[in-house]
Design brief:
The structure is a single chain. With about 475 residues, the chain is an alpha/beta fold. The chain folds into two domains: about 5-35 and about 350-470, Immunoglobulin-like (Sandwich); about 45-345, TIM Barrel. It contains eleven helices and 19 strands. An eight-stranded parallel barrel has the order 3-4-5-6-7-8-9-10. Strands 12, 14, 15, 17, 18 and 19 form a six-stranded mixed sheet that branches. Helix 6 (about 210-225) links the parallel strand 6 (about 190-195) and strand 7. The longest helix has 18 residues, at about 165-180. The chain starts with a strand and ends with a strand.
Length: about 475
């Protein structure tokens, strides 16, 4: 199949012969052909959960909240699960700090190494406790206040008083140490703002007044100023505060299609709470600058077992401009695979180079006119910095020329670059292939798959050719 349609503009008959007409004959126009593949790209898509690419998925209806602490084996055969660019892991406080001030950061270090080895970045959450995983014993014996009594209905669980200064002190120390070690790590995708309630989801029968919630949010803002943070959804005032201070947002029960609930702490989410809270919290436009991440209630197979409306769930996720989705590393039912493939082509960003125009002959040390028309076919921008580049490559030399655009500003829809690029002074004369790529600043190599034909083994996209000729 042809890589792209290439044509040279002819002489405009209305122009007199001379430089202007010659300039028209010196133009190459490329219209790359779009593809419909599911693209695995940085910072978006389905995520793995508590494991990494190529490792055994969970059963269809079960998962574990216990994060990996050792290296996990690869599956014997290719798993029935999409390849992904993000691994999402979370660990309990009692695992990371079993004794006061003794942190097991080697657990998170290993997860970062494993993510890199599997072609992923790592998203994390530190969790204080759950209904099955207690707070560290040393904390419970520290003199910290307990919010419930043994004789209460939930008395078997030691519930912390989140307004206790000792909770802020000790949990804050864990968060601060994590920030010192990991903030700004280029392989850390994002960090959840997690402080209160089971799994750190930000809800509890014992939620403190907002000033205490604010303090527990601020420790994350202070510890991770260079890292994408995600604010948990449940407490409206906290959600507004966190997102107003630069966090994206996430929720933990995508797909809960119940129409009623008898539990004040587990309401009907999709048809009652979530869509309205987005508006009431004022977070409708957060996605334009910071990501939205969603996690399934149950698993996708659990939705099917309950007879939930898949189209409604996926359409709502797209309306929220979702970038990443944690489906608990459980397989998608075969009957729903096609709908999920379509969904994956829409979430996050999807860059299609619609048209490229450049000069057919260029001079070393000169400015070369370039025009690019891009289309973001996804529902969100990209949130980390990458470099659009145009490469001139021959058998003797190659030059990657950065294009001065900030692709983080490419919201869904069209983006145009009309400008000039500098042809390196020392580029030898000759014929050059013209290639386009979006480069990872960590490596200087192409890192983003485009929704067009022409991708070559090294990740660059072939666009045509030009001639470098000295004046």
């Amino acid at each position: 199949m042809p890589i792209a349609k290439i044509c040279c503009a002819g002489i405009l008959l209305t122009f007199p012969a001379g430089n202007r007409a010659m300039a028209q004959t010196n133009v190459v126009v490329v219209r790359p052909k779009a593809i419909q593949d599911v693209l695995v790209n940085p910072g978006m898509g389905i995520t793995t959960f508590q494991r990494f690419n190529g490792q055994e998925p969970n059963p269809p209806l079960k998962w574990s909240e216990v994060g990996p602490v050792t290296k996990l084996p690869q599956a014997a055969t290719k798993p029935d699960f999409p390849d992904t660019s993000v691994a999402y892991c979370r660990w309990y406080w009692n695992v990371l700090e079993p004794e006061p001030g003794r942190f097991h950061w080697e657990i998170v270090d290993l997860a970062l190494e494993e993510a890199r080895a599997h072609g992923q970045t790592l998203a994390i959450r530190l969790m204080p406790y759950s209904n099955q995983d207690p707070l560290p014993e040393w904390y419970r014996n520290s003199g910290a206040r307990r919010a419930n009594k043994l004789t209460d209905k939930d008395g078997e669980i030691w519930q912390p008083d989140f307004s206790d200064p000792l909770y802020l002190k000790y949990w804050g120390e864990l968060v601060a140490e994590a920030g010192k070690r990991y903030d700004g790590n280029p392989y850390l995708d994002s960090v959840d703002i997690s402080s209160a309630g089971y799994w750190g989801e930000g809800w509890s029968p014992y939620m403190p007044a907002f000033p205490y919630q604010k303090a527990l949010i601020d420790i994350w803002l202070e510890a991770f100023p260079r890292t994408i943070l995600l604010m948990n959804f449940d407490e409206q005032q906290a959600l507004t505060y966190g997102t107003q201070h630069g966090a994206g947002w996430r929720l933990d029960c995508l797909g809960d299609m119940r129409t009623s609930s008898t539990s004040p702490y587990f309401p009907a989410e999709m048809l009652e709470i979530y869509p309205q809270q987005v508006v009431r919290a004022g977070i409708q436009d957060v996605w334009q600058h910071n990501p939205v991440s969603l996690e399934t209630c149950y698993t996708v197979a659990g939705w099917k077992e309950r007879g939930y409306d898949l189209d409604y769930i996926l359409e709502q996720a797209l309306r929220w401009h979702v970038s990443t989705v944690n489906i608990k590393s459980a397989p998608v039912p075969s009957e729903w695979r096609s709908q999920f493939d379509t969904f994956q082509k829409k979430i996050g960003y999807r860059f299609n180079l619609r048209r490229l125009e450049y000069a057919k002959v260029v001079n070393p040390g000169s400015m070369m006119p370039v025009h690019m028309w891009w289309l973001n076919q996804g529902v969100a921008p990209i949130y980390k910095e990458f470099t659009v580049a145009m490469q001139l490559k021959s058998s003797q030399a190659a030059a990657a020329i950065p294009v001065p655009v900030d692709i983080r500003k490419w919201l869904p829809g069209d983006a145009v670059f009309d400008g000039t690029l500098f042809v390196p002074q020392n580029l030898p004369e000759g014929n050059y292939d013209v290639r386009v790529g979006i480069l990872d600043p960590r490596t200087g190599q192409p890192a983003i798959r485009l929704a067009v034909e022409g991708r070559q083994p090294d990740g660059w996209y072939a666009m045509g050719s030009l001639t470098v000729k000295a004046k």
